[in-house]
């Protein structure tokens, strides 16, 4: 039992390290190890290669790790909370909340905080609001599929509102928003990385604090409450952490589909456990591995075809959802 | 000790009333009544899943509804009528979750928690299945698992909602005998709802009968035959 989990976890860590190295050094401009070390140690002036390493490759890799791990964790939180293997921040429309508020903010020029925090703040607040909406619906909707349909409707609704906003926006804002909507790991600069890591590690830590409630929720809400779980508090905490992950990642990378749905299922199939201490670790590593691998493919094909990240994850993710539905893998 | 004081059981309307009745530890009670008379509602009222329509319930002299939320699981454990199993949740992990009221904020199992789990699994003779997934077990073993989870909770009051409904004759008999033994040896107050009135005669169980004519709960200390109970509940 335990050996199985140890094996897959170690294997995933090993694979993540390898693929990360590949990610750093494969690309249009070939870079070397010395560029990597120089990016950290040398102050200035940097050569072009060293600059590419520090300002493009490293932030991009970090975003792939943060994005993959974070979305997978957010998906796991949703799946356990709603006791639904098909849940995830994207299918439940929690991303849409981020998109809506980001669109409102970038396309109309309305700002919350007026700084670089603005988009992050908008995205997290949007994710939280839509998370609460889904939570409210989940109280009256019993079927797994119905909840997903509501998530889908939230997405359509947002899409409609956003298109109206897009039409009335200036051309430049329209373009920057459209690019954001395709999902990309390349928009982050080194100077933003510390803040992103701070938010990310904070959310990961919060997830670990939720281990006991998550394990209890596996029994179903009624049984968990009879064992002393405070349901209202737990729901609020889970939605908040999910919103933090989803908002943060959506703000910097745009919407990324299906990672949050597919990875928690894969992790559970590999680990064959319901102990969330292991599942959190597994989702972090396997989620990161998944998105870094996707980005390596995108980097590799860059010369021939421009693959938007969201398109690639959907191409892999959508068939996976159908697979789960048919096999009823829960 | 559970004491009912003018208790009206029911959610929206009063289903039946319990005038003045106390149930004691060291006993196993059979809860009998026709379908839809509110047996499950009574059990759920005792874990506060369902509010009372009126009156009070006291546990060891304290008002059930005044108890702190986290105290309740240490006093009352509940076994639902059917547990369907959960994929990738091993029987041992499932039973260990019953220790939740006793573990720290991370749910970490101490040596004593693991020992208690093993002890209960041995008592119910299900140690062999501990590493099996709960959705892959037979109905009988799974039901024993659900009871084990309630037992490791170490609450003095144990409520079971038709635990024998999905068991064959042999398992049914064995389970009820084991439960009666536990009530005596671990000094618990066990209430077990069932349609199997033979059991109450065979094991000489004091029987709580929901009388649908008078809408009352009546305690028969030692019913002599099935007809006596049937006469009451019908």
Descriptive account of the structure:
The complex is a heterodimer of chains A (330) and B (234). With 330 residues, chain A is an all-alpha fold. Chain A is 76% helix and 0% strand. The longest helix of chain A has 34 residues, at 48-81. The model of chain A has no long low-confidence stretch (mean pLDDT 88). Chain B has 234 residues and is of the alpha/beta class. Chain B has a single domain (2-233), classed as Rossmann fold. In chain B, the strands form two sheets. In chain B, strands 6-7-8-3-9-10 form a six-stranded mixed beta sheet, with helices on both faces. In chain B, strands 2-1-4-5 form a four-stranded antiparallel beta sheet, covered by helices on one side. In chain B, helix 4 (111-123) packs across helix 5. Chain B is globular, with a radius of gyration of 18 Å. The two termini of chain B are 29 Å apart. The interface between A and B is medium-sized, with 24 and 27 residues.
Any chance you could write out the topology, listing elements then pairs?
The complex is a heterodimer of chains A (330) and B (234).
Chain A (H helix, E strand, L loop, with lengths): L1 H24 L7 H9 L6 H34 L12 H15 L8 H24 L3 H24 L3 H11 L11 H17 L1 H7 L3 H6 L4 H23 L5 H13 L4 H26 L7 H19 L3
Chain B lengths: L1 E8 L6 E8 L3 E6 L6 H8 L7 E6 L2 E2 L8 H4 E4 L11 H6 L14 H13 L15 H14 L4 E5 L7 H17 L3 E5 L3 H6 L4 E5 L4 E5 L5 H8 L1
Parallel strand pairs in B: 3-8, 3-9, 6-7, 7-8
Antiparallel strand pairs in B: 1-2, 1-4, 4-5, 9-10
Helix pairs in contact in B: 4-5
CATH homology-level superfamily of chain B: P-loop containing nucleotide triphosphate hydrolases
Q: First CA to last CA of chain B: what distance?
A: 29 Å
- CATH topology (level 3) name of chain B: Rossmann fold
Provide the CATH superfamily of chain A.
ABC transporter involved in vitamin B12 uptake, BtuC
How confident is the prediction overall: mean pLDDT of chain B? 92
- What gyration radius of chain A follows from the Cα positions, in whole Å? 20 Å
Largest sheet: spatial strand order of chain B? 6-7-8-3-9-10
The helix count of chain B comes to 8
Per the principal axes of the C-alpha atoms, what is the gross shape of chain A? globular
Largest sheet of chain B, if any?
6 strands, mixed
Q: Could you tell me the number of beta strands of chain B?
A: 10
- What is the CATH first-level class name of chain A? Mainly Alpha
Low-confidence stretches of chain A: none
Q: What's the CATH first level of chain B?
A: Alpha Beta
Percent of sequence in beta strands of chain B: 15-25%
Q: What percent strand of chain A? A: under 5%
- What is the straight-line distance between the termini of chain A? 19 Å
Q: Note the run of SSEs of chain B as H and E.
A: EEEHEEHEHHHEHEHEEH
* Principal-axes shape call of chain B: globular
Structural class of chain A: mainly alpha
Radius of gyration of chain B: 18 Å
């Amino acid at each position: 039992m335990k050996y199985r989990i140890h094996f897959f976890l170690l294997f995933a860590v090993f694979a993540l390290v390898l693929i990360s190295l590949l990610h750093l050094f494969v690309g249009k401009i070939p870079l070397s190890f010395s560029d990597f070390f120089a990016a950290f140690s040398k102050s200035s002036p940097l050569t072009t290669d060293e600059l590419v390493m520090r300002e493009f490759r490293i932030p991009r890799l970090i975003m792939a790790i943060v994005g993959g791990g974070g979305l997978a964790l957010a998906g796991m939180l949703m799946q356990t909370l709603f006791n639904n293997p098909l849940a995830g921040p994207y299918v439940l429309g929690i991303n849409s909340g981020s998109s809506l508020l980001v669109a409102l903010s970038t396309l109309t020029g309305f700002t919350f905080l007026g700084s670089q925090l603005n988009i992050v703040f908008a995205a997290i607040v949007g994710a939280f609001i839509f998370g609460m909406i889904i939570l409210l619906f989940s109280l009256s909707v019993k079927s797994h599929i119905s909840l997903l349909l509501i998530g889908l409707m939230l997405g359509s609704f947002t899409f409609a509102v956003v298109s109206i906003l897009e039409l009335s926006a200036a051309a430049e804002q329209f373009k920057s928003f459209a690019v954001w909507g395709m999902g990309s790991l390349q928009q982050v600069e080194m100077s933003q990385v510390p803040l992103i890591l701070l938010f990310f590690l904070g959310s990961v830590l919060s997830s670990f604090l939720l281990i006991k409630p998550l394990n209890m929720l596996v029994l179903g809400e009624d049984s968990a409450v009879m064992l002393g779980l405070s349901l209202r508090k737990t729901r609020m905490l889970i939605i908040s952490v999910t919103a933090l992950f989803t908002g943060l990642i959506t703000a910097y990378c745009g919407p990324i589909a299906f990672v949050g749905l597919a990875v928690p299922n894969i992790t559970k199939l590999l680990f064959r456990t319901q102990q969330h201490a292991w599942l959190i670790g597994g989702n972090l590593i396997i989620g990161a591995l998944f998105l870094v691998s996707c980005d390596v493919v995108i980097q590799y094909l860059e010369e021939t075809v421009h693959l938007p990240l969201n398109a690639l994850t959907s191409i892999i993710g959508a068939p996976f959802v159908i697979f789960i539905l048919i096999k009823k893998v829960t | 000790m559970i004491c009912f004081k003018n208790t009206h059981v029911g959610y929206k309307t009063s289903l039946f009333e319990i005038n003045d009745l106390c149930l004691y530890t060291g006993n196993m009670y059979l809860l009998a009544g026709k379908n839809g008379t509110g047996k499950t509602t009574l059990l759920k009222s005792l874990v506060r899943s369902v509010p009372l329509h009126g009156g009070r319930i006291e546990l060891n002299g304290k008002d059930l509804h005044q108890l702190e939320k986290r105290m309740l699981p240490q006093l009352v454990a509940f076994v639902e009528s059917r547990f369907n199993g959960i994929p990738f949740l091993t029987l041992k992990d499932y039973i260990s979750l019953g220790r939740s009221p006793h573990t720290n904020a991370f749910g970490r199992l101490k040596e004593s928690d693991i020992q208690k789990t093993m002890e209960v699994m041995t008592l119910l003779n299900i140690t062999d299945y501990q590493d099996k997934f709960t959705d892959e077990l037979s109905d009988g073993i799974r039901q024993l698992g659900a009871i084990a989870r309630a037992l490791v909770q170490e609450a003095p009051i144990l409520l079971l909602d038709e635990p024998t409904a999905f068991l064959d004759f042999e398992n049914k008999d064995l389970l009820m005998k084991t439960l009666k033994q536990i009530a005596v040896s671990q000094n618990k107050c066990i209430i077990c709802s069932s349609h199997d009135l033979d059991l109450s005669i065979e094991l000489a169980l004091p029987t709580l009968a929901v009388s649908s004519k008078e809408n009352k709960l009546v305690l028969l200390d030692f019913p002599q035959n099935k007809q006596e109970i049937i006469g009451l509940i019908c």
